[in-house]
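Hi, here's the filled form for the chain we discussed.

Project: internal
Contact: R.S.
Residues: 197
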Amino acid sequence: MPQTILVVDDERDIVELVRYNLAQAGYRVVSATDGRQAVEMARRERPDLVVLDLMLPVLPGAEVARMLKQDEKTRGIPIVMLTARGEEVDRVVGFELGADDYVVKPFSPRELVLRVQAILRRDEKEGPDERIVHEPLVIDVGAHLVRLKGKEIVLAARPRLQPGPAPLRGLGLRRRDRDAHGGYAHETSAGQAGTGR
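And the returned structure, exactly as it came back:
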């Protein structure tokens, strides 16, 4: 049975363009033209992937993504944002909401199909509901969630000092001062040992 893709966009010509290209690639395509329909259809159809516009009537695409990622039944469904909003802040918000990819309109239908195929291939390798449990820590890979004692932990990337002479200049740190975790042990102004990572 072919994999199912839910295409959500209020522009019917975009829906038909995406539908045609995904169908040519062998996918079953269902569609919705507003946010509320999208959430209902995702819960009913359980698609393998959602292609989601951000600017939707009734319920905005950002809220649709949030609802899908919070629902136990739909949180593992990958989302590709397909939108005219191409500023960095829009892309960052899309990824923070759980998007697996972000495509800006105007777009190449062939590239969109290839991105969909890559995400679905990756998800086949990972498995649909991969969870790592080491009580009290639970990592839900598919939902991009981490919980400690039942409470969600918000994770964010932070820059690390890169090894090498440039970041160490003026800090009084040397390569041999590295601790076991790759950071640098150093003395604070109070003379106590600290870690610089």
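Let me know if anything looks off before we file it.
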